[in-house]
Amino acid sequence: MGLVTKVIRYLGLLLWWLLLPEAIASVESDNLEGIRSETVGGDIQPERPKSFQRVTRLDSSIRSDMRYASDQNFVGRPIAGYLAPVCYLANPAALALVEVHQELLAQGYGLIVFDCYRPERATNDFVQWALTREAAQKTHYFPRTDKSELFAKGYIARHSGHSRGATVDVGLYRLQFDPAAASGKASNGVCRRRFAEDRAAGLLDFGSDYDCFDRLSQTAHPDLSEVAKQNRQRLVNAMAAKGFVNYDQEWWHFTFQPEPYPTVYFDFPITED
User: Fold this and answer.
1) What are the residue boundaries of the structural domains of the chain, listed by start?
2) Half-sphere exposure of 251 (CA within 13 A, CB side)
3) Which CATH architecture has domain 44-265?
4) Best CA proximity match to 55, nearest among 128, 117, 132, 136
5) Residue 245 near residue 255, CB atoms below 8 Å
6) For the residues 162-187, what does the mean pLDDT come to?
7) How do residues 239-256 score in pLDDT, each as one tens digit?
8) Which of 19, 80, 180, 191 has an alpha carbon within 20 to 30 A of 28's alpha carbon?
C-alpha cells in the first residue's frame, strides 16, 4: 500500500470517527419499542421545526387554556417544557384543526385547546411525579382512582402521542352567552372542580372536567346527562369530519390521521416564539 493511499485511508477513518456521535444522535436514537426521539445534549435546547404552526396565529378565534403551563392541572404546578401557554401542532394537524373550528363557527360554537404538542420532557415529568406519593390534586382529578393505578389504567404513559405533534386536547365554547347554561349545576361531584368557572366562560358541559382520570371520561360513558352526551358527540363528529380520531377513554383527546411524524417524539420547549 502506497504512502498516499495510507494517508487517504487514515483521513477517512479520522473523519468517520469525528462524525460518528453526530450520526448516531441525528439518525437513530431508537429504543427497543421502535420509538425515535430527539437527543438533547447538555444545555442545548432542540429548536422547533418550521413544520410546526402556532394554531392561534392561523385563527385567533380559537380559544386557548393551556393548563400544563400553569398550576391548573393534576400535578398542581407548571410542567417541564411548558415555558409559555402556546398551542403548536405539526402543519397538517394545525390546518385541519382550523377547518374544524371554522365549521363549528357556522353552528354557533368554537374550539378551545387545552393541550397540543407536548415535549418529551413533559411526559417524563408526569412519569416522575407518578412514581412519588404526592397526590395533592387527587380530589379534583382522580378521586376514584388510586395513584398507583395511573399507569395500568393508561392515564399516564412513558410516551405520549402529543409529542408527535398531531394530537390535541380540545373542548367547545358557545359563541353566544347562554345564562341558563352558565347557571347550571353539576350533575355529580366527580371531577367538577371547574364546573362553575367553565360554564361562566361559555364552555360546554361534557360531563366531567378536562383531564379527569376516571371512567366518567370515557367518551361514550352511559352515566351522563343528555346535554353532556350531545356535546361529546358534537365534538367527536366535528373532529372526525376533518380527520381527527378520538381516544375513547378521554372525550377531549384527538389525533389527526395520518400523522405527519408517526414515530418521532419531539422535545423542543414550548415558547412564545
Assistant:
1) 44-265
2) 28
3) 2-Layer Sandwich (3.30)
4) 117
5) yes
6) 82
7) 999 999 999 999 999 999
8) 80
